[in-house]
Amino acid sequence: MTRSEPFPQHVFPADEGAVLALARALRDMGYSFTTVTPASHAHVNVRPRNAEAQALRDVFGWSRPFRAGLLPEPILRLMREAGAVVEDGPLLRPTLRFSSLDGELFAHSAYPPSAADAVFFGPDTMRFVGAVIAHVEGRTAPVRRAVDLGCGSGAAGICIAKRKPGAEIVLVDINPAAMRAAQVNARLAGTEGVVVRRSDMLRDVEGSFDLIVSNPPFMIDPAARAYRDGGGPFGAGLSLALAEQAVERLAPGGTLVLFTGAAIVEGKDPFRDAVAELCIGAGLDWTYREFDPDAYGEELATEAYDAVERLALVVLTATRPGSHA
Questions:
Q1: First to last CA, the chain
Q2: What is the rounded CA–CA span in Å between residue 219 and residue 296?
Q3: Cβ atoms within 10 Å of 302's Cβ, excluding its own
Q4: How far is the C-alpha of 230 from the C-alpha of 83, rounded, in Å?
Q5: How many CB atoms lie within 10 A of CB 166?
Q6: Residue 212 backbone dihedrals phi, psi, to 5 degrees
Q7: Contact yes or no for 316/255 (Cβ under 8 A)
Q8: d(CA 19, CA 171)
Q9: At what angle do helices 176-189 and 16-28 cross, to 10 degrees?
Q10: Following DSSP, what letter does each residue of 165-214 receive, concatenated?
Q11: How far apart are CA 217 and CA 276, in angstroms?
């Protein structure tokens, strides 16, 4: 392969055991990395001095090509065993990343996350997990059973499991690559009671839940990437469908924490109007707040968002009254 040819997209290696061994080795070396947005990643990586990796973080965080001699031999061997490295001309290139959150490492897809089934992890993941942790730590009702719906890397569910030992935590995704990543990350964190399940939303998962959390795709994405394309008006289709399913599966005292995006049109929030009607109709106690009033401003330059004046990040918290005895 030459540098002028398109670089193949590798989603997440199939050998979970080898990826886990690699992750543990990196953790033992003190590796940490805060993943930025794809836009920031592109700005930083395009700098001439960043064309080639010079350190461990450059490889496993910034996804830069590297020379074989840069990494300790055991790390490179584990990468090869995991299928986490490919040739890129005279260099090598990693096919997955590791990011830090809540004192843990999380494996996910390498940059750029342009494959249709890429496993995304970024600033929104950290915002979402922060909202979930705040709810869990301020919650008085018990959490016996929780689900991270559309779990991706599994970060939110794993962080719940750390704080609610003994609870059953179900990590649900329809993307096999995300399921592999979530399984690796749960094992890496040493969390117990975590189950990874394949399901289209909650259709293939039984029972009710004390806590349902989700950060679904909420953008209009012409490439139809699973982690990004929400469908429906302004990308809100999946978020609304998820909320509709979730409110039916909340146990008494159970709560939905939904972190998503909302397109504001002429000062109005159609998504808020829709979830307000849903929650009131279901008799739920609910709150809705803008986490960030103006995110993804670059999308406003596209035709799909021509009628939108801003994209807000929002948190819906909806609770079914009563107690789960």
A1: 61
A2: 10
A3: 11
A4: 30
A5: 10
A6: -120, 125
A7: no
A8: 19
A9: 40
A10: TT-EEEEEES-HHHHHHHHHHHHHHT-SSEEEEE-STTTT--S-EEEEEE
A11: 20
The full length of the chain comes to 325
- DSSP reduced 3-state for 314: strand
What distances in angstroms separate CA 113 from CA 12, 197, 246, one per listed residue? 11, 23, 28
324 touches 251 (CB < 8 A): yes
Contact, 215 vs 256, CB < 8 A? no
How many C-alpha atoms does 305 have within 13 Å on its Cβ side? 22
| Token duo for residue 201 | 């939303």
Q: Which helix (H) or strand (E) holds 30?
A: none
Amino acid at 64: R
State which H helix or E strand residue 285 sits in: strand 285-292
- 38-88: per-residue pLDDT in tens? 999 999 999 999 999 999 999 999 999 999 999 999 999 999 999 999 998
Q: How confident is the model at residue 17 (pLDDT cuts 50, 70, 90)?
A: very high
Q: Give how far Cα 304 sits from Cα of 14, 37, 45, 149, 263, Å.
A: 35, 21, 28, 27, 11
Going by C-beta distance under 8 Å and a sequence separation of 6 or more, which residues neighbour residue 85?
76, 79, 92, 93, 94, 95
Largest CA distance in the chain: 63
**Nearest alpha carbon to residue 187 among 129, 120, 106:** 106
Give percent of the chain with pLDDT exceeding 70: 96
CA distance 96 to 14: 12
Asked whether the whole model's pTM tops 0.85, one would answer yes
Query: By CB neighbour count within 10 A (0-12 exposed, 13-18 middle, 19+ buried), where does 32 fall?
Result: middle
Cα angle 188, 189, 192 (rounded to 5 degrees) comes to 110
User: Distance between CA 283 and CA 279 in Å, rounded?
Assistant: 6
Alpha carbon distance 275, 283 (integer Å) = 12
Residue with tokens 């799909």: 304
- CB-CB contact of 285 with 219 (8 Å): no
